[in-house]
Amino acid sequence: MATPHSATPTPTHPAGPAAPATAPAAVKILIAGGFGVGKTTLVGSVSEVTPLRTEEYLTRASIGVDDLSGVDQKDTTTVALDFGRITVSPELVVYLFGTPGQERFWFMWNDLVNGAFGGIVIADTRRLDTSFASIDFFESRGIPFVVAINCFHNTNTRTPDEIRTALDLDPQVPMLLGDVRERAFGRDLLLALVDHLMDLAAVAPVG
Amino acid sequence: MGPHWSELEDADAEDATGVMVRPYTITRGRTAPERDDLTLITVLTTVEEEAGAALARGSRAGARGLQPEHRLILERCRRPAAVAEVSAGLDLPVSVTKILLGDLVAQGLLRARAPLSVARAAGGVDLGLLTAVREGLRRL
């Protein structure tokens, strides 16, 4: 694999030794989409471990001007993130993070997006609108993404073109239909994302 | 552990605040890490020699510095683990975990490896890295 040194200085030990051979490098992929659309299911279908859950404090300061009705008396509460991992090699691990679906938690996305490879947006054909915001978010931040149309109930009666139009997707954005519970579909989505990143690199001006 | 974001309703939020006191007691009142370079996927590895010595010192009476959570982290990170994994394993919020990790990195007991970025510092995209990821994913 390519040398990571140029892209990853080790600021924690500016003058210290290089990271030991036993520490793998990590990359991050985000799984987004509307509430209840299957994000954690997808993480679980490809992760080598049962999805883990970690928490972060939701402070009034980080929420900014958002109105958290019902927690007026509180300065903090917690929000949880589900994630999984895929060990690509002894030197490389991919972490998959489900993103909070509710708008009031989106401030967390800034941290999540930082350094992310790219994203997968899951959409449910019965309520495509719940995934509009995820698509907008990735587009506005310039984060490459692919779209997964979750068809696990065989409820999809729309053609891919109709869905693409309804989502107002850029023609270049890959869109796959399948069942996020199936590992093979999860793998195909991840591969489609990597291929998309490579395609984008191929057309980008050489740095 | 508190409610998942997908389940977090106002009633649950009431409960979640009940666990607030203890985590920041663990950090001796600190609410922000001294270093801001620990991300969710920064990978941490215990520095065996130094950590072994520190753990041995701590087992004697009068030792100071390492708290139980620090010890758990040093044990956990004998196998490299990301910040998010340590946080999940300790059942502590990410921000609290980062403070404890920062303590150990500052003492030279933990080594931190920053995440890889697909964008190279020199510009362009790291195709070698993408190829490596792709090869690994194909085996899924």
Describe this structure in words.
By secondary structure, chain A is of the alpha/beta class. Chain A has one domain: P-loop containing nucleotide triphosphate hydrolases (Rossmann fold). Chain A has helices at residues 39-46, 60-63, 107-113, 132-141, 160-167, 183-203, and strands at 25-33, 52-59, 76-89, 92-98, 118-124, 145-150, 175-178. Chain A has a seven-stranded mixed sheet with strand order 2-3-4-1-5-6-7, sandwiched between helices. Mean pLDDT of chain A is 80; it is low at 1-21 and 61-74. Chain B has 140 residues and is mainly alpha-helical. Chain B has a domain at 30-117: Winged helix-like DNA-binding domain superfamily/Winged helix DNA-binding domain (Arc Repressor Mutant, subunit A, Orthogonal Bundle), CATH 1.10.10. Chain B is built from seven helices and three strands, in the order ααβααβααβα. Chain B has a three-stranded antiparallel sheet with strand order 2-1-3. In chain B, helix 4 (68-76) crosses helix 6 and helix 5 crosses helix 6. The longest helix of chain B is centred in the last third of the chain and has 13 residues, at 94-106. Chain B is elongated, with a radius of gyration of 18 Å. The two termini of chain B are 31 Å apart. At the A-B interface, strand 1, strand 2, strand 3, strand 4 and helix 6 of A face helix 1, strand 1, helix 5, helix 6 and strand 3 of B.
